[in-house]
Amino acid sequence: MSVEDRYRIERAKWDALASKELPGVSVLPPTATFYTYARKVSVMAGVNEFLGDLQGKQVLECGCGLGEISILLAKSGAYVTAFDLSPVSVAVARRRAVMNIADTKINLAVAAGESMPFADERFDVIFGKGILHHLDANLGCNDLCRVLKSGGKAVFVEPMGMNPILNFVRAYIPYRHKHPRGADRPLKYDDIHRWGKPFKEFRYQEIQLLSMFERGFGFNKRFTILRRADAVLLKRLPFLRRYCRYVVMFMVK
Ligand SMILES: C[S@@+](CC[C@H](N)C(=O)[O-])C[C@H]1O[C@@H](n2cnc3c(N)ncnc32)[C@H](O)[C@@H]1O
To answer: What mean pLDDT do residues 229-244 have?
Structure first.
């Protein structure tokens, strides 16, 4: 599929979803920050520890969608730049930003992740959740590294695509909060390594094997026993890691 076709499909899908959200944009709780979010949401495992203090940092959020995380980053003291391919998503994010925080701390743009309109070495930190698997790694990985300062950190939380049962469910089984299919492709190890290649340091951690079933009980419900079982299984039987639902990728330039 050509890049233009991919952009057209993705823009149509995310514009349509975002337009339903526009009337319902609300103010986030005053105590909510990126740190509280990352502690609460299971797929953000290790993110706070890796990024540390965000106060005063220039942070880029790739594929910001409706802007909730961008606002949380700004509420944590960062100067935030965020972009998304979908103009309607960016309009929702802009409205949220105005309602939640001094507008001047968030700079929002409509852009594609494979060719970002930012200067070289502009950011201390880059964050993305559920974005790399929408991009072409061959086109995007050098650009990602280009906009990060030397010594800067990047972290991405992405769905993995190597569990055949999960892939079947994603393709064919209806479930609550399921989005229509776009042009995205959950990551395989080849993609993960391609994204990490331009960086000086790169590691990743597969997460959610049994604990992926928490989702069936409602978003972000904690089932400690499943998480403990994951910790043991993924350490003792590394071949199971490829069947996890998510991967967290940690890069240093
Ligand atoms: C799964 S959503 C994630 C949104 C947000 N990060 C979150 O966690 O709620 C994926 C987002 O990627 C955006 N997107 C898709 N292809 C893109 C591209 N080539 N460049 C930039 N953004 C893209 C979509 O518009 C959508 O907002």
So the answer is: 92
